[in-house]
Amino acid sequence: MPKEIELPQIPEQEQTPLVRDLVGIIEQLAEKVRQQEELIGQLKDEIAVLKGEKKRPKFKSSGMDKKTETKDQGSDPPNKRKRPGSAKRHKTQQLTIHEDNKISPEHVPEGSRFKGYQDWVVQELLIGTHNTRYRLERWLSPEGEELIGQLPDALKGQHFGPMLRGYILYQYHHAHVTRPVLQEQLQEWGIDISSGQIERILNQAHESFHAEKQAILAAGLEVSSAVTVDDTSARHQGRNGYTTQIGSAYFAWFESTGHKDRINFLKLLNPGPCRYVINDQARAYMREQKLPNGPWRRLRNAPVKTWADAEQWQESLEAWGITKARHQRIATEGALLAGLLQNGVPEQLAIVSDDAGQFNILNHGLCWVHAERLVHKLIPLNEQHREDQAAIRKRIWDLYAELKQYKLAPDDGWKSQLEARFDTLFTTKTRFETLNQMLKRLHRNKSELLLVLERPEVPLHTNASEQDIRDYVKKRKISGGTRSELGRRCRDTFATCKKTCRKLGVSFWEYLIDRLSGTRQVSPLPSLIRQMAAAK
Predict the structure, then answer these.
(1) CB–CB of 354/339 below 8 Å?
(2) pLDDT given at position 238
(3) Which is nearest to 476 in space by CA: 241, 226, 190?
(4) Which residue has the higher pLDDT, 160 or 40?
(5) Whole-angstrom distance, CA of residue 330 vs CA of residue 361
(6) From CA 230, how far away is CA 352, in angstroms rounded?
(7) Residue-level pLDDT at 58
(8) For 37-78, how does the pLDDT look when each residue is reduced to its tens digit (9 = 90+)?
(9) In 409-469, which residue ranges form alpha helices assigned H by DSSP?
């Protein structure tokens, strides 16, 4: 874009007709230059496409969800709304006062009357070391038995208190402070701590957190009729891996693995011990996935049975003569799905994703924001293409806005109208053939995009999952990846606890200190998930 021309201020007495005409000509020329620059940019895009170049120009987010946000009934008009945080309140009324310091005027004349106090509250943070020496008494009983005093439960095996350990965990997992910086900070404050000790605090003796993390998934799936899912890359031991997120309004759960496919996702979604089950549900899935007749006949006649681990299941597949990779994959997916349902995951659970194939199980729904993004990213080759693309995107936004309204007040008559509008929109023929093919593709996904018409509680997008998983992207940019299995496990566990605390309205800092000190005044997160769901 050309630099905008700033004309100098011309005094009114000097603005002769000739001067005004010249200023008008300059402004017209500047507008023409701007239009030419824009046209040149569009032509460069078209040349790049015709050359078959892989790189595409960067696009800003379409902002579809923001453009279709509905205003609450009775809300203030946009021009009268106050900025966030501007509401008047007593900013220090809720503060706990730890110290009162009374200050008298320098000189009070005789006969003056005392009129009370004018309060001035100052907030401060105290940072310093507090070292405690526990002197464990040693006694020798008459029988010769040595008796020694015992440390508090929160300190057994630890030379650092729960507040310090909680601070280290909070800074590392919540504030994304790296270990070297964290060590330098603590040493400057007078804490004598090594990098190895920080490593142990971050990664060891966290079995209670790991157990609570797994219980979060079980409770979340128990109370959620729909979940959104997403994944992102997460390096481990110098190799590319992936982190999968599963979440709803009540919880967020993370697990990192070396690869991603449907078998991996079925294992992650399982809240209990992983099982391989052959029953009618498993056979129905295999038939739906077009398992060839030979393997299908062997599995159809197999008795109902459960396998406890992957090795036993693999041996059974080979015993049945099912050796091809594709056949084994379909059979394994069906067996895992049946085991998932046997472990209590409801068959009606809706899973909303960005159309990644591994998530397409149970009642699958598609994210509208990702679907619209496919249209948004198409590169038009001429003005007609641009016009048609803009028109289609507007119609998608309009339909999306109505679906959001439908969620608030479902109606059978409205449902039929929305289905008809969907068909009309995604069978439209435009002058942009690539757009036509994209609309055809989206129309084939009608049942997944319109799942909300059958299940109004199902989310229309996966924005919550993308927001939850963003911490992994930050972590990847700062630290690269994890090195030990303990490190990877702790990263997933504390991310799960932190994000779930946020959704439940629990302070992650208070949660950490509560668990490390053993006070247990913060209820278990799975219990809070069930309470929150029951209250809605």
Answers:
(1) no
(2) 85
(3) 241
(4) 160
(5) 13
(6) 9
(7) 53
(8) 878 877 777 777 776 665 444 555 556 656 565 544 444 444
(9) 412-426, 433-444, 446-449, 451-454, 463-468
Helix (H), strand (E) counts: the chain:
22, 11
The residue assigned the tokens 């799905």 is 337
Handedness of CA 115, 116, 121, 125 (dihedral sign): positive
The residue written with tokens 């009983």 in the block is 141
């993004």: which residue's tokens?
Answer: 373
Query: CA-CA-CA-CA torsion for 156, 158, 163, 168, nearest 10 degrees?
Result: -140
- 308 φ, ψ (degrees, to nearest 5): -90, -20
User: Each residue of 240-297: pLDDT tens digit?
Assistant: 899 999 999 999 999 999 989 999 999 999 988 889 999 999 999 999 999 998 888 8
pLDDT at position 64 is 61
CB 223 within 8 A of CB 347: no
Q: What CA–CA distance (Å, rounded) separates 495 from 472?
A: 9
| Between 485 and 42, the higher pLDDT residue | 485
Paired tokens of 519 = 């006070």
Phi, psi angle pair for 274, to nearest 5°: -70, 130
> Domain limits of the chain?
368-461
Residues 495, 472 contacting (CB under 8 angstroms): yes
CA distances from 278 to 130, 291, 380 (A): 60, 14, 50
Closest CA to 309 of 274, 262, 358: 274
Residue 101 tokens, joined: 């310091």
Backbone angles phi, psi at 19, to 5 degrees: -60, -45
